[in-house]
């Protein structure tokens, strides 16, 4: 009986940890930002230590355009490659952020 309870608690913990890790996946897609598909629970770049980051960003710029998203772990990241949009966000709409 103790083995059954221990297994149930362990399974609940694992499922909870997976749900927590994937909680924000889909937020960028819901607002219309094209996104690199995230891995199971490691974000969009599970092997980020194996690649040259600026080359990966350039590939995604060619693939998605001026604005794209990525997940670093469980947090969504938005990348902007258009200087006019960046200027508008950093100067004109600064009070909103």
Structural description of this entry:
This protein is α+β, with helices and mostly antiparallel strands. It has one domain (24-96). It has helices at residues 2-21, 27-30, 53-64, 83-92, and strands at 67-72, 75-80. Strands 1-2 form a two-stranded antiparallel ribbon. The chain starts with a helix and ends in a 5-residue tail after the last helix. The model has no long low-confidence stretch (mean pLDDT 89).
Summary tags:
97 residues; alpha+beta; two-stranded antiparallel sheet; 2 strands; 47% helix; Cytochrome_P450_3A; oxidoreductase; iron; Cytochrome P450
How much of the polypeptide forms β-strand, as a percent range?
5-15%
- List low-pLDDT spans: none
Shape: elongated
- The oligomeric status of these chains comes to single chain
What is the string of helix and strand elements?
Answer: HHHEEH
Q: Mean of the pLDDT scores?
A: 89
- The secondary-structure class comes to alpha+beta
Number of structural units classed as domains:
1
Order of strands, widest sheet:
1-2
**Major sheet, described briefly?**
2 strands, antiparallel
N/C terminus separation: 54 Å
Radius of gyration: 18 Å
GO molecular function, one term: steroid hydroxylase activity
Protein name: Cytochrome P450
Keywords: Heme, Iron, Metal-binding, Oxidoreductase
Family: Belongs to the cytochrome P450 family.
